[in-house]
Structure formats: structure tokens, C-alpha cells
Fold:
Amino acid sequence: LVPALGMNTWAGEREHGTEELLLTMPVSIFDAIVGKFLAIVAFFSVALLFNLCHVAFLAFLGDPDWGMILGNMLGWWFTGLAFAALALAASTMVASAAIAWVLGLLFCASFGAISFFIMRWTADFDRGVLNLGGIIWALCVAGIGLALAMLRLEARRWNLATGGRTT
Structure:
């Protein structure tokens, strides 16, 4: 879901021809990136909250382990933060939303595979334990994704300011 939410953030600006206008406006790249990132996170958070209907059904049927449910939900939310930043970074790298979706999917799948098979930082979330290391790891990956997006857009803004060709 998250690569689909992030695919049109910057690639759509390029497809519609509004990227140059956005990059030359008196708004900082940081503000634009954070705004688009928070929009992805908001949509993802709403989608995650819709899973609470399953939790309500479980509570109706029996007595679920609320700590495990809360740990899973927060773990998925922090993972979604990292995925949102990676999807946003992928969207800044290409001009087509469809290609941005594929690239974002590859970024998120690579991060997910590394996280699941090598680092195992999500294993504690699956057991309902909020691991500070896992939270910090997800926030660091989100920061790296946002930094990549900022660097890419600053390079484009510089090209526009100097009359260079945008890529």
C-alpha cells in the first residue's frame, strides 16, 4: 500500500509539469518533503486504523492479547514510516508514477527482506514487545529516505537555478 501512496508524490509533479513551479516557489525543500511525507503517513495511518475492526471482532469472539495487538500495530506503523520515506525517495528519482511505484516497491521489499531475514528487528513487534532498537532502526531508515529525497530535489532545484537541464 505505501509504495502506491508515495508513487505520485513527486513523479506526479513531473508528469503534470508542476515540479518546476514547486521548486521555484519560496518554500523550502524540507517543508515540501515533510508535507508530502506526512500526507503518506496520514493515509497509511488511516488504513492501519481500519484494521481495528478486526480487533473489535476478535474482542467480540474472545479475549485477545491487547499487548500483542498494540505492539503489532505500533510496529507496523513504525515500519510504515520507513516505507513512506523510501517510497517518497523513489518518487523523486523518476518521472513516471508507475515506475516510481515499482522502484518504491523494490526499495520497500529490500528493506523488508533485510529487516525480516537478517536483522530481525520486527520480531519483537510480532510478540507484542516494543523494542527501542527496532523503533530507532525504523526512524533511521525513514530519515535516510527523507535525506535521499531532499538531496535529489536540491540537485534539481540547483539545476533550475543555474539553467541546467533537469533529469
User: Anything to note?
Assistant: The mean pLDDT is 84. Residues 72 and 125 are 5 Å apart (CA to CA). The longest helix spans residues 132-162.
